[in-house]
Amino acid sequence: MSYAYLFKYIIIGDTGVGKSCLLLQFTDKRFQPVHDLTIGVEFGARMITIDNKPIKLQIWDTAGQESFRSITRSYYRGAAGALLVYDITRQRETFNHLASWLEDARQHANANMTIMLIGNKCDLAHRRAVSTEEGEQFAKEHGLIFMEASAKTAQNVEEAFISTAATIYKKIQDGVFDVSNESYGIKVGYGGIPGPSGGRDGSASQAGGCCS
Amino acid sequence: MDFKLGRINLNAVAQGVGGLVFGNDTSASSEDSYVERLLDRISNGVLADDRRSAMSQLQSIVAESRAAQLAFGAMGFPVLTAVLKEERDDIEMVRGALETLVSALTPTDAAGGKKNEVQPTLMNSDLLSREADSIPLLLSLLEEVDFYVRYYTLQLLTALLTHSPNRLQEAILTTPRGITRLMDMLMEREVIRNEALLLLTYLTREAEEIQKIVVFEGAFEKIFSIIKEEGGSEGGVVVQDCLELLNNLLRRGASNQILLRETIGFEQLVSILKLRGSAYNFTQQKTVNLLGALESIELLLMGGLDAEPGKDFNRQSNQTAFAQRNVLDHLLLLGVESPWAAVSVRCAALRCIGVLISNHPLNLDALANKVLGEEPHFEPALNSIFRIILRTSSLQEFIAADYVFKCFCEKNTNGQAMLASTIIPQPHSGIRDPLDEDIKMPFGSMLLRGLTVNENDEDLETCWRAASVLSHILKGNIQSKERVLQVKLEAPMTSFGTPELLMHRIVKYLAVGASMSRNNGDCKTSTSSSCLYTQPIILRLLVTWLADCPNAVHSFLGSQDHLTYLLELVSSLSETVFIRGLSAVILGECVLYNKSDDNGMDAFEVVDAISQKIGLASYFLKFDEMQKSFPFLSAKASQHRKPLARSSAASMSEVENVEESTAIDPKHDEDPVLMSIFDGPFVSIIKRLETDIRQSIVEVFSHPKSKVAVVPAEMEQKDGESNEDYIKRLKSFVEKQCKELQDLLGRNATLAEDVAKTGGAGVSGSDQANGGKERVQAETLRRDLQEAKQRVEVLKSEKTKIEAEASIYRNLAGKMESDLKSLSDAYNSLEQVNFRLESDVKALREGRSEPGLDLEAIKAEGREEVQKESEAELNDLLVCLGQEQSKVERLSTRLVELGEDVDSLLEGIGDDVGLPEDSEDEEDR
Q1: What gap in Å lies between CA A12 and CA A101, rounded to an integer?
Q2: With an 8 Å Cβ cutoff, are B268 and A40 in contact?
Q3: In what residue span(s) does the Uso1/p115-like vesicle tethering protein C-terminal domain sit (chain B) (predicted)?
Q4: CATH superfamily, region B197-325
Q5: Is the ipTM of this complex over 0.90?
Q6: What count of Cα atoms within 13 Å lies in the side-chain half-sphere of residue B97?
Q7: Is A100 helix (H, G, I), strand (E, B) or coil?
């Protein structure tokens, strides 16, 4: 259970672009072609390693439907990273809405939130409606990291989550965040100084004692 | 008029309402104008000091008088909202405005009043929450630096929440960062923190979205850090609030449970159970805190709501995670080894043990191997829990401990076998008290003693409790059932008694229990719960035991009295629906699982007994009656335990009263013990059994045990079998079939009567079942009829064959007759010759006398010779005739048997037959 840092992520984007599938692929390494509509917000978690440090990712998968917008807004501020997802086969609906999502994020999130733009479903190349260049262009204009990925083939899924974490980690090293303030979506873990994993549980509970 | 005015002048409305509420009280109007004047000073005043003092006057009058509250509601909100919006810099004014608002929403002390009066506080909170921007405004005030501003704001929000929860929840959800602000309050100074805690507890009670956001904002960490700060279970009411908030967050979603497990784990929750230092000292607050923590553990161990997908996986993960934190030790300490803890705490701990082990192989083993006590007084934990079952004076505790065994035995064949293997009767020795803690005996011996020890006292208290545990051990485990079937008890009282089967003894207790409840008449007044529970629990034991176990059925039916007694129970009107229903299920099992061939106890006999003594329709009606009561029970069960909440009035006394209130209630359908008997799995077993029983009874009727085997080959005449024997054999066969037909008709009539009786009652379910049986029955009868027809056909052809034979004989007889005729003709001609000769001789004698002598002698000689000759011939003829006669006689009797009119048949011949007789007569002459 011990980790050096805990990062909170949110996944946002239009309904049906594959947000929940990306999360499932990342946490469970499986793909579910038919997924129920997400109601409100769902939760997933996974441990990753960056710079030899164990980092826990808490990921909140939001509902893309308009009717849930006001609820999902509550999750922006406390998140360190956001995955903004569109569907490369549906230009009009999903790519064109990116601006409005971004505006929401800028308005409610903390200014230092790291945003990763993901063009999902890149396995469906024959139905592509948004070119890679267009995606890159949009990301560049708005200062986002960009990647095309496929929740179905798992291509770039790990990379997307991990490179977001790496960016956040670098910001911490650069002193951008006041990590003692939890409202940035970052928490310093009990195992703050990561070392060999011996006596994990014991150290966790002890550290818990002095932490509160 | 009033209405019209009201639209123009708010003041008039207030007056109108005030007048309505307070009748002719003139003070109302004076307060109205006073409030109006104060509001006017606040909104239009120029001097800051004057406005402040107006505000404080307004606050104090609103806090004291209902009339002022009413007047304020009608006029004041726009004024004060304006202050809050536009005068943020004037902290004192903002404070005053907030305090006034709080007062306007808080009932005055004097507000006893009449019930049907308008509640000004309700009206005011409705007015305030209706205002679209008032909630965002209040939430924004939480960011103010001033302590009182935040404090009053929180109080105001809480008051709004209690009066109009839905509107407030919605408003908070749609306000960006609304909940974030509230969550930040948890890190504030104590007073504000506690206030915010209370507010969040109210907010999270229903709204799932709010629960998730609160968790997202790190509620778990904050909750546990506050609990730790406040001293864990030793802490005060704040700890209770924290735990209530925690339970709100865990109650619904597996998602939140996963988050707790994955991010901070269960260590801190388990550590709340640790009893520090003064372990004997359980204050009421500590009891409530422990109950809260135990509820959290139970919620986590159940894994969320039933319908949720992935619930089982989450439940197992939680069970494993808790086991790693040694929660079992803490639970056993609280549930089994803390007699000084409140009963409710012990029960909650036992229930947690149950859900901890339920369907979790590792945890089941852990409990099975757990040993309690200190050297040398080790005792298996299960034995200690069983002792609680036998000994506790609280029904709640019995149910909780019984639940542990129920969970332990559920899908745990090895565990059941382990417990069953120790059930060995021990010789009666001086030690008679199984409740004595100093005597450590194996589990099984404790169980047997518990079952049998109290019978002399006419009190079956320990008996039904032990029977309940035994039914868990036997449930679905054929080996255990067979094993316990073998258990024989020494007859304790009779010196000559032979060992008695445990099962038969238990049935005896069933009867004793019934007679007890009859004698006691009114069980409610009896201090002993025996008469209430002995019957249903023993019946459940038998239902469980007989299921899928032909040997148990055989053993049960081993005594004829058992069947008779059950039939009596099913039809007894003085018993409850459940007792009749369960008895009916047992009867059904005696049919369904009956593999016996013995006469008097096979499935057919049982079915016959049911249809004769009870009637099939009313028998099945017992199932329906019981079924109808099930959903009622389960509905009750779900709302049985309501969450403990500080807000629900006087929770302290509630904790103390939990058991009494439920234990005293004598109503069957709300009885906690009955509810634990008819738990989900048992109800579904009964439902499954019922369908099987219906089917098997239909089967018994459609394939009645045939007493006469119909083998076509035997219908043929055997080689060498005489006609007569053949006919006899066929006749007896037909007779047997006829008798069986009568039996079937009788059964059919019983059924028809049954149907007729219930037909009007509209019990369509059982009606249809019976209709089906009728049809099956009719089918069988039709088949029998056809068989009989065929047999008649065979007999007919038989008859024509015989008739043909008869005509052959008739022809034969005709030939004989014609032979006879020719013989008699011959005789006649001889006679004539003789006559001629005689006349010749006469003539000669007259001519010559001497030679006449010789001639006379010769003549006599010759006549003698002729006569001899014809006599021999006649004799032959007569013998032959006699034979023919007897042949005809035999044939004609046989023909008569076959229903042929012999006289008419023989009519033609009769005249001819007379001839030989005539000739005989002639001869005699």
Answers
A1: 8
A2: no
A3: 798-922
A4: Leucine-rich Repeat Variant (1.25.10.10)
A5: no
A6: 26
A7: helix
Name the amino acid, one letter, at A6: L
Cα A70 from chain centre: 19
- Minimum Cα–Cα distance from A57: chain B residue: B263
Nearest-CA distance A141 → chain B (Å): 27
pLDDT at residue B660, as a whole number: 41
Query: How do strand B379-380 and strand B371-372 relate by DSSP bridges?
Result: antiparallel
Task: Spell out which chain A residues touch chain B, with contact meaning CB-CB distance below 8 angstroms.
Answer: 1, 6, 8, 40-43, 45, 56, 58, 60, 70-71, 73-75, 77-78, 107-108, 182-183, 187, 204-205, 208, 212
Q: Where are the domains of chain B?
A: 27-108+119-175, 197-325, 549-652+672-707
Domains of chain A: 5-187 (3.40.50.300)
Closest CA to B873 of B823, B808, B917: B823
Residue of B nearest to A45 (CA): B262
Residue B256 contacts A, CB cutoff 8 Å: yes
B577-587 pLDDT, tens per residue? Answer: 888 999 999 99
Say how far apart CA B282 and CA B348 lie, in whole Å: 15
Question: How far apart are the C-alpha atoms of B289 and B647, rounded to whole Å?
Answer: 15
**Tokens read off for B338:** 């803390």
What is the CATH number that goes with domain B549-652+672-707? 1.25.10.10
Contact between A128 and A89 under an 8 Å Cβ cutoff? The reply is: yes
Interface of B with A in 3-42 (CB under 8 A): none
- Give CA separation, A88 vs A10, A15, A31, A94, B545, in Å: 20, 13, 18, 8, 64
Q: Where are the beta strands (DSSP E) in B375-421?
A: 379-380
pLDDT given for residue B665 in this prediction: 40
Identify the H or E element spanning B783.
helix B764-847
Strand pairing category for A145-148 and A81-87: unpaired
B209 interaction partners in chain A (CB closer than 8 Å):
40-41, 71
Contact assignment for A60 to B216 by CB distance below 8 Å: yes
Whether residue A1 and residue B216 make contact (CB cut-off 8 A), yes or no, is: no
- What tokens does B221 get? 């960490």
Q: So what's the pLDDT on residue A146?
A: 95
Length of chain B, in residues: 925
CA nearest B373: which of B362, B363, B383?
B383
> Which one of B215, B262, B266, B268 would you mutate to disrupt binding with A, by most A Cβ within 10 Å of its Cβ?
B262
Taking the CA of residue B323 and the nearest CA in chain A, the distance in Å comes to: 14
Label each residue of B30-49 as H, E or C: HHHHHHHHHHHHHHHCCCHH
Superfamily of domain B27-108+119-175: Leucine-rich Repeat Variant (1.25.10.10)
Residue in B with minimal Cα distance to A201:
B267
pTM, full prediction: 0.73
Contact check, Cβ <8 Å, A56/B212 = no
A192 vs B462 pLDDT, higher one: B462
Is B263–A108 a contact, with Cβ atoms under 8 angstroms apart? Answer: no
Task: Determine contact, residues B167/B130, Cβ cutoff 8 Å.
Answer: yes
